[in-house]
């Protein structure tokens, strides 16, 4: 199982916005060069981050990207929810077309659901405890 790269790219976007503010005009092209990806992909994710209220995008010559909240108020869970919307609030999907008369098939959802929910709760809790500021602090340590 693997969460796609959308999440890490979204974090990359927000880190660039904060690290380079005041030093460079932070645009989708600027971030795309840092992430080594296409600016169209960056713009798509920026749209999702903007819709979630995490960034503000100013277009035009004087434009750029800014955070809508202080970094200590943006959790990894906020970023995850902006980029990877979970259908029906469930991270794990359980197949639903099992044979009801089968002892396994008839009970698979009831059997797995509590375990999957526990794993999801642990992940969400972990992501909620880490903020963008935590990552910025770690980045400062790595750069020194």
Automatic annotation (TrEMBL):
Pfam families for the chain: Rrf2
One GO CC term, this protein: cytosol
GO molecular function: DNA-binding transcription factor activity
Source species, domain of life: Bacteria
UniProt protein name: RRF2 family protein
Organism annotation: Treponema primitia (strain ATCC BAA-887 / DSM 12427 / ZAS-2)
